[in-house]
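User: Quick one: structure for sequence A, then sequence B.

Assistant: Sequence A:
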Amino acid sequence: MTELTSIVSIQPSIRAAHYHAYSGRVKEKNRFGYCFAFHFIYKGTGTVQMNGRSYPLKKGTLVFIPPGLKHTFHMNESQPISSYDMYCDFFTKKNTIQHLYFDPQLDFEPGLLTESKPCSELEQLTGITQLSRYPELIQTFIQIVRMNRLDIQYKAEIVNSLLYSWILQLVNLNLSDNIPDYRIQKIIDLMEQYPGMNPPYEQWLDMCQLKKSQFYSMFKKMTGLTPKECFFRIKMQRAYATIHESKRSITSIAEDLGFSSVHYFSLQFSKYFGLPPSELRKQTKVASVSYSIKDEH
């Protein structure tokens, strides 16, 4: 079993840090990082796509992206995004400012990839965190980016110490903001057990002993999703696993998951995963045949 690394053992250093005004250029899309990245949205609105999800961006949003994760930034043309960006090594410093690549087959250089270790605190940070209520964290982050541009004595020691302290504060904030609530967890467990049901919201409110506004607010705070979005994600993940692991028909799977028609199910599945369920089934069959041929040899 892989041993987890504690967040306190990291030794962060900065490869590159700057203020960036997004313009929709090619280098803001379909990109991968050689190292860990923080993006603090200073102004504007938009989205970032990664991990099969689209995260909303607005002033005060902090994005954390681990190395090797494909991501794309989209901006609102009427309110373009500007951000303070920081690209970091957490375990072993690499003497390079290179921090992005765009095609794993063509321009990826293995020697530039940062060292990574399994760390649950870092995994929980992946995605977005709202810092609007924490101006001191915002100011420290901006200060680190600006100080990294200066030519001063002991710059690396000062900047790296500030960054280490800031990351621990961020993790502490993230942990305290996302303590699981047993009432909400109970509802998520029911969604997992019965993904084909029509959501009985009134029953759930009674079970939780919460008003509708409280329930939605607590659910969103704990999961980052509305109950409807969470239930939909569970359905999609169950559909993917069932198509991949069984020979059941697409129609049967759609019915079990409560979709009104296989056509509607296919549309939703395609939007979510980027390919129709029939194509996933074909790929699964091809992979299965390929593995059997290998086994025979």
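Sequence B:
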Amino acid sequence: MADARAYCLAGAAAGALLAMVSLFWPASQDRPVSPVVARINGHLITDADLQLALDAMARDSRNVLPEDASDYALARLIDEELLYQRAIELDLPRNASTIRRSVVIAMIDSILARADLEPTDAELRALFAAEPERFSGEVLLRIDWRSGPAAGDGLSRPASHPPDRLISASDLRRYLGAELAQAALALAAGETADLIAAGERRHQLTVIERVDPVPAGFDQQREAVTALWRERGEEAALESYLADLRDRASIAIQAD
């Protein structure tokens, strides 16, 4: 069984390469014409496909390919095509979850590979200028936090009080929660917020010390700006593609 499996998978690298070539080839271009070397249930294997398979075998082999390498590669491509066609007949891409995920991921990769994700210098500078806070460090705060029952008069220091030192805004949120942390971030050093009601408790926040980040220059942050630009470009490209698919699809959602 192991030998049979190894036999069938021997051309996997070549087959994967052929699949990638087919998947990523731009729809607006025709693939180069190449002589046909085999037909399997109407599917053509061309000489160019065979050469790609041989190239893949050569890269994976430590030795010179034998004289019958071409016959061997073609046999593997035929076997792989037969297995692929049978998998489609069994609807494995839909019924096997791991295969389904692989197909979806490959489709997403193909969409992103065709997207224009090379920003110009002007586009990067515009993004940096529009959202400078994304490319600077976090605010550091040292606070005093007092809390007590909403119906009571006294306020005391909670057991979960942040450490008595400067901590980042992210760490502060873990101690205070999003609402109280946001109130603290709005305060200047030495400033105390009005009593804040949250749930069944009252809170008082005083900023003892505050250090705002020094804005970074564009040149120092170019790599981070580029990464954000590409991330958003990928999201936009995928959403645009999906929007087109939704427009062309027949989708019926059953009511409860």
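The chain is about 55% helix and 15% strand. The two ends are 49 Å apart (CA to CA).

User: Thanks, that's what I needed.
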